[in-house]
Amino acid sequence: MYDYLLPLQKRHLKRASEILTESFIDNPMFVYFFSEPKKRRKILSMTFPIVIQVLQSNGRLFVTSDHVEGLFCVSKHGEKTKIGKLLNAAFTCAIRIPQFLIHLSLIEFLRKASRLQPANSTLAKYKMRFDNFLLVDSVCVDPAHRHQGHMTKMMKAAIEETKKRKTFCLLQTETMKNVRIYKHLGFSVVEEVRFDHIPFSTFVMIYDPYGITD
Q1: Are the CB atoms for 135 and 169 separated by under 8 Å?
Q2: Lowest mean per-residue pLDDT among 15-19, 67-71, 91-95, 200-204
Q3: Is 75 in a helix, a strand, or coil?
Q4: Residues forming a β-bridge with 6
């Protein structure tokens, strides 16, 4: 399934963080949280190394090659959290909190985050009803390497695992461009979560070849 991808290694971390920053710098959710572009770039560049550690505590990260044109995370709902990696992420976050507070208002951030809770509750419904399905997260491709098939290659690997496990796969996105790409690969929108006074929607999408969730 993942023979033509590489598991994320320590040597990939710096490049992976850079690509996540460049890929999500204009994502509507991050624009909502951090409207000023320079501040947003600074915060994301500090945040994504921690995000990678959190993702590694629950899932597997893959890169397209040692050049890291793209990366994504696949996790299996129900698997045990890797406590060591999660503690490392918490420790790193604690160290960087003073840096974060220079660039953002924590109260304002928490207020905005609370408005997005309905999107998280949608995934929670599936987590309560089903076991052993796949979650895809943080799919990104370096802007300099887009339109070269890297996203398709990564997503097809997740689709192959979904079929092998005879289960289904969930993901979320905030852009219609990604919705169109995922639809082309066989995903369907199961819910569009709209928010009051927030200028974007969150789309919850599913690939369910066996009709498990019907």
Answers
A1: yes
A2: 91-95
A3: strand
A4: 63
